[in-house]
């Protein structure tokens, strides 16, 4: 199956949280910082202007992006255990190069 977001929505796979230090110490869940970056997995066609013309999305599949600490709609994809979120393009804070 292929997941295709509608309009200006972008599907993001959040990066994994760091759960263990380099020395092997396990970090408790409450002490872990919220992951605020991820990778673009799928993008919609863009939003529409009043005249019906599409405004293209500025990020593309594979881009690394900076996300707000809270927000996005959690999405499950075919028994995949990774954490995916659906964001509107305007909610993405920056592209990381």
UniProtKB/TrEMBL annotation:
Record flagged with keyword Signal: no
UniProt-recorded Gene Ontology molecular function terms: ATP binding; metal ion binding; protein folding chaperone; protein-folding chaperone binding; unfolded protein binding
Key words, A-Z: Chaperone, Stress response
Gene Ontology cellular-component terms listed: mitochondrial matrix
Lipid biosynthesis keyword on record: no
Pfam families: Cpn10
InterPro entries with a match to the protein in the record: Chaperonin_GroES, Chaperonin_GroES_sf, GroES-like_sf
CDD domains in UniProt: cpn10 (cd00320)
Top-level taxon: Eukaryota
SMART domains for the chain: Cpn10
Similarity section: Belongs to the GroES chaperonin family.
Protein name in the entry: 10 kDa heat shock protein, mitochondrial
Lineage: Eukaryota, Metazoa, Ecdysozoa, Arthropoda, Hexapoda
């Amino acid at each position: 199956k292929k997941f295709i977001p509608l309009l200006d929505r972008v599907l993001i796979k959040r990066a994994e949280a760091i759960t263990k230090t380099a020395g092997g110490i396990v970090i408790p869940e409450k002490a872990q910082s919220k992951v605020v970056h991820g990778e673009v997995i799928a993008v919609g066609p863009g939003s529409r202007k009043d005249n019906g013309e599409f405004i293209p999305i500025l990020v593309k599949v594979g881009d690394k992006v900076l996300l707000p600490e809270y927000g996005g709609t959690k999405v499950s994809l075919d028994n995949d255990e990774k954490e995916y979120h659906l964001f509107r393009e305007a909610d993405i804070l920056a592209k990381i190069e």
